[in-house]
Amino acid sequence: MIYRYTGAALALLLLQGCASDPAPSEQMRLTEQVVEQARTVAAGETVAELTQAEEKLALARAAMADEAYRDARIQTEQAELDARLGEARVLSLRSQAQLVELNRQIGRLREQLGAMP
Protein backbone atom coordinates (compact mmCIF):
# COMPACT_ATOMS: atom_id res chain seq x y z
CA MET A 1 0.00 0.00 0.00
CA ILE A 2 2.84 2.37 0.79
CA TYR A 3 4.32 1.68 -2.64
CA ARG A 4 1.10 2.68 -4.35
CA TYR A 5 1.05 6.07 -2.57
CA THR A 6 4.74 6.58 -3.19
CA GLY A 7 4.24 5.76 -6.87
CA ALA A 8 1.31 8.18 -7.11
CA ALA A 9 3.33 10.92 -5.41
CA LEU A 10 6.25 10.38 -7.77
CA ALA A 11 3.92 10.49 -10.76
CA LEU A 12 2.47 13.79 -9.56
CA LEU A 13 5.93 15.24 -9.05
CA LEU A 14 6.97 14.20 -12.54
CA LEU A 15 3.86 15.72 -14.06
CA GLN A 16 4.37 18.92 -12.10
CA GLY A 17 8.00 19.09 -13.23
CA CYS A 18 6.96 18.69 -16.85
CA ALA A 19 4.43 21.50 -16.70
CA SER A 20 5.96 24.65 -18.08
CA ASP A 21 5.45 28.13 -16.71
CA PRO A 22 3.33 30.39 -18.90
CA ALA A 23 5.00 33.35 -20.55
CA PRO A 24 4.82 36.33 -18.17
CA SER A 25 3.74 38.71 -20.93
CA GLU A 26 1.45 40.80 -18.72
CA GLN A 27 4.07 41.04 -15.97
CA MET A 28 6.64 42.09 -18.60
CA ARG A 29 4.34 44.83 -19.91
CA LEU A 30 3.62 46.09 -16.39
CA THR A 31 7.31 46.10 -15.47
CA GLU A 32 8.22 48.02 -18.63
CA GLN A 33 5.64 50.66 -17.70
CA VAL A 34 6.90 50.89 -14.12
CA VAL A 35 10.52 51.24 -15.25
CA GLU A 36 9.55 53.93 -17.78
CA GLN A 37 7.61 55.81 -15.11
CA ALA A 38 10.59 55.63 -12.74
CA ARG A 39 12.88 56.91 -15.52
CA THR A 40 10.52 59.85 -16.05
CA VAL A 41 10.41 60.65 -12.34
CA ALA A 42 14.20 60.40 -12.03
CA ALA A 43 14.63 62.61 -15.14
CA GLY A 44 18.39 62.55 -15.52
CA GLU A 45 19.27 61.67 -11.94
CA THR A 46 21.44 58.62 -11.41
CA VAL A 47 19.63 56.14 -9.22
CA ALA A 48 21.28 52.78 -8.51
CA GLU A 49 17.96 50.98 -8.12
CA LEU A 50 16.77 52.21 -11.50
CA THR A 51 19.98 50.98 -13.13
CA GLN A 52 19.45 47.60 -11.48
CA ALA A 53 15.84 47.53 -12.67
CA GLU A 54 16.91 48.18 -16.25
CA GLU A 55 19.54 45.43 -16.05
CA LYS A 56 17.03 42.94 -14.67
CA LEU A 57 14.50 43.91 -17.32
CA ALA A 58 17.13 43.18 -19.99
CA LEU A 59 17.76 39.79 -18.37
CA ALA A 60 14.02 39.14 -18.36
CA ARG A 61 13.78 39.95 -22.06
CA ALA A 62 16.63 37.54 -22.78
CA ALA A 63 14.94 34.84 -20.69
CA MET A 64 11.68 35.41 -22.59
CA ALA A 65 13.54 34.98 -25.88
CA ASP A 66 15.00 31.72 -24.55
CA GLU A 67 11.54 30.67 -23.34
CA ALA A 68 12.84 30.46 -19.77
CA TYR A 69 9.56 31.86 -18.49
CA ARG A 70 10.16 31.17 -14.81
CA ASP A 71 13.43 33.09 -14.89
CA ALA A 72 11.78 35.86 -16.92
CA ARG A 73 8.98 36.17 -14.35
CA ILE A 74 11.44 36.35 -11.46
CA GLN A 75 13.55 38.98 -13.23
CA THR A 76 10.52 41.10 -14.14
CA GLU A 77 9.22 41.00 -10.58
CA GLN A 78 12.62 42.03 -9.22
CA ALA A 79 12.95 44.76 -11.86
CA GLU A 80 9.55 46.15 -10.93
CA LEU A 81 10.46 46.26 -7.24
CA ASP A 82 13.81 47.92 -7.97
CA ALA A 83 12.14 50.53 -10.18
CA ARG A 84 9.52 51.31 -7.55
CA LEU A 85 12.22 51.60 -4.87
CA GLY A 86 14.28 53.91 -7.08
CA GLU A 87 11.27 56.10 -7.79
CA ALA A 88 10.42 56.27 -4.08
CA ARG A 89 14.01 57.19 -3.25
CA VAL A 90 14.02 60.04 -5.78
CA LEU A 91 10.71 61.38 -4.49
CA SER A 92 11.90 61.11 -0.90
CA LEU A 93 15.11 63.02 -1.64
CA ARG A 94 13.15 65.73 -3.41
CA SER A 95 10.76 66.01 -0.47
CA GLN A 96 13.67 66.32 1.92
CA ALA A 97 15.19 69.09 -0.21
CA GLN A 98 11.86 70.93 -0.25
CA LEU A 99 11.58 70.59 3.51
CA VAL A 100 15.05 72.08 3.99
CA GLU A 101 14.13 74.98 1.71
CA LEU A 102 10.84 75.62 3.53
CA ASN A 103 12.61 75.59 6.90
CA ARG A 104 15.14 78.08 5.55
CA GLN A 105 12.34 80.37 4.37
CA ILE A 106 10.52 80.08 7.71
CA GLY A 107 13.74 81.01 9.51
CA ARG A 108 14.17 84.04 7.29
CA LEU A 109 10.56 85.14 7.92
CA ARG A 110 11.07 84.75 11.68
CA GLU A 111 14.15 86.93 11.49
CA GLN A 112 12.23 89.56 9.54
CA LEU A 113 9.35 89.47 12.04
CA GLY A 114 11.76 89.72 14.96
CA ALA A 115 13.41 92.78 13.43
CA MET A 116 10.08 94.64 13.20
CA PRO A 117 9.64 97.52 15.65
UniProtKB/TrEMBL annotation:
Protein name, as recorded: DUF4398 domain-containing protein
Domain DUF4398 as annotated: residue spans: 26-101
Signal peptide: 1-19
Family annotation (InterPro entries): DUF4398
UniProt keyword annotations, A-Z: Signal
Domain of life: Bacteria
Species this protein is from: Phytopseudomonas seleniipraecipitans
Keyword Transcription regulation carried by entry: no
Keyword Cell wall biogenesis/degradation: no
Residue ranges of the TM segments: none
